[in-house]
Amino acid sequence: MTAVQQTIHVGGEWRAALSGATREIIDPVDATAFAVVAEGGVRDTDDAVAAARAAFDDGSWPRTPVAERAALLRRVAALLERDRERIGALESQDAGKTMEEGRVDVDCVRDAFLYFADLVEKEDGGRVVDAGSPDIHSVVVHEPVGVCALITPWNYPLLQASWKIAPALAAGNTFVIKPSEITPLSTVVLVELLLEAGLPLGAANIVTGPGHTVGARLAEHPHVDLVSFTGGLVSGTKVARAAADSVKKVALELGGKNPNVVFADACSTPEGFDTAVDQALNAAFIHSGQVCSAGSRLIVEEPLRARFVAELARRAELIRLGRGTDEGVECGPLVSAAQVARTEEYVASALGEGAVLRAGGERPAGPGYFYRPTVLDRCHRGMRVVREEIFGPVLTVETFRTEEEAVALANDTEYGLAGAVWTADEDRARRVAARLRHGTVWINDFHPYLPQAEWGGFGKSGIGRELGPSGLAEYREAKHIYRNLAPRPVRWFAGTTAKDQA
User: Fold this and answer.
1) 11-27 pLDDT, tens digit each
2) Which residues constitute the catalytic centre (predicted)?
3) Catalytic residue among 39, 91, 253, 403
């Protein structure tokens, strides 16, 4: 275990928590501590906000030309490429994911910085509005919103940080970021890379610490102009309430309970069947199911159910668990003991409500926070395991007989983040995709996203969007500038003299 790291960065200075508090970072593979970080509090948060406020109000970054801002983002992307293996390994150890997942995350972070660099650089000087008169010049421009509070989750700490930091900086904002207290290390490294790339001091600030102190203070702080939060529904609603008093902008991504709808015609060939089963495994068990868009609800056409579930369960039992950096490991542990206990409780609840266990359903022998990929058959919408987000390697199976029933089941959720439909019928694919009330809909695929395309959900999956042009717009304010080129009296009010009128 390393010495205590100064993981709070305020106004250009790395430092310990003002209280001296620290937190051990736990390796979920063996439940041992491998790092110690500063445990910031309210005073640290206030200092970080003050630094970001000064950097926005009086500093250079908001007034830096767009081309220079884009160039800095590209330098960050190059540094990520340089440090890909080191950061990927850190993400693997901290969050429990496989090394390949860690590498892919770094690549996706790089792509996000490159995308927002390109996006802002290609923009023109604003949207000209036709006022109907040659004497009027009217234009809508976009300006940075100000000081941004960025609160990120533990499952994809580096990736989620980039989805907020890259557009925030591209737009000219300053920020304070609070990573999850469970997995903060890669975000600390990302801030280091921003400074190495030449970001002015004070534009990027980080406070490592718990949500109930650091996160809560950021959400309520009167000098924060926007709060962007990714995490659970309960915490997200608290953020929204805290932000309401100062009427700051709020963006929330709050997870999902995502349907993966499989029609029998998608499996009419051996290749189609193999692909659909393989993708159902990926949808549910990547990163041990700790994914906001995980396809944790398999909704399969009834005539296909028995064959599909049998093969799915067989393959699930073969998934190799272990340390993500070890050769041949396909799935890592859950992030914490609490997450294992949560998963166990949901599985026990499902079995008590009549679900049939087809695979997994237990912790393997040995240390760490592992849980076997689990397939629960004969599920229905009355079960908690079907309604509530678990964030664990648990796949539930429901069935349908008609297209109408499939759509109804897929939409029968308070969330609406993502969903998929598998079918060989192009007309059906278009119909079902159009009717699914989810922010992302995949057809014959699951999980890919593009930095150019908006990400976010309907219903209780949140408000606002990340990525795409809308992801940049979240970090901006629109301003209408109206210029009269030939001003003259309006004569709206009476009271002028005849001489004046003459």
Assistant:
1) 999 999 999 999 999 99
2) 253
3) 253
